[in-house]
Amino acid sequence: MNAVELSGIRKSYRLGTTEVPVLRGVDLHVAQHEYVAVMGASGSGKSTLLNIIGFLDTPDAGEIRIHGAPVQRQDDAALSGFRNRTIGFVFQSFHLLGNCSALENVMLPLRYRGEARAAAGRRALAALEEVGMAHRGAHRPDELSGGERQRVAIARAIVGEPEIILADEPTGNLDSKTSDEVLDVFARIHARGRTLIVVTHAPQVAERCQRTIRVCDGQVIDAAASAAA
């Protein structure tokens, strides 16, 4: 079964009176439990593609299916709930709340679901343990290194046990050693059965994935398996 299927996805943005096409009829599938990289030059449309897969942005045309079911026709409340249960997000700039501890940041997706604080705390601590950060749960983001903040962000992405993890340049702000450590975490997450889609400009990141999807001028030009797969 495919975890993600895109058919005829188009997206444009308006700059003043000019309409700028970003995605031009993208057809794409990602199999369940697959680990893929999305690569392309700046402005190629790769981040927009990821945002559309994660329902952070809406296509102008085309269809999105998650595990075989069309989902973008749901209203905003239903779509938000579906996204919270099904998809976890990891961003280059971490997007952690500075006035909250690492544990509190990881609890957020569960609290948005209405889960009781005590239960959410136990699950958040388990997620931090999974990424090797349980000992730093009481620390705020400004007390953590970049790699530690990214691990906390990954714990937040997986705490709700989503089936799909989307990561946008997750190693972009990290040095090579820390990047390798974060990629090791991703490899363990993938080994536990999750689907991972990672936007990256770094060949060493793509080499760790099973397949590389290349985007150019808003179109998928290649979707081959990597040599390491």
Automatic annotation (TrEMBL):
SUPFAM superfamilies listed in its UniProt record: P-loop containing nucleoside triphosphate hydrolases (SSF52540)
GO cellular component terms, semicolon-separated: plasma membrane; transmembrane transporter complex
SMART domains named among the record's database cross-references: AAA
Keywords: ATP-binding, Nucleotide-binding, Transport
CDD domains hit by this protein: ABC_MJ0796_LolCDE_FtsE
Domain ABC transporter, chain residue ranges per copy: 4-229
GO terms assigned for molecular function: ATP binding; ATP hydrolysis activity; transmembrane transporter activity
Origin superkingdom: Bacteria
InterPro entries: AAA+_ATPase, ABC_transporter-like_ATP-bd, ABC_transporter-like_CS, ABC_transpr_LolD-like, MacB-like_ATP-bd, P-loop_NTPase
Keyword Hydrolase belongs to the record: no
PANTHER family assigned to the protein according to its UniProt record, in alphabetical order: ABC TRANSPORTER ABCH.1, IMPORT ATP-BINDING PROTEIN
Family: Belongs to the ABC transporter superfamily. Macrolide exporter (TC 3.A.1.122) family.
Name recorded for this polypeptide: ABC transporter family protein
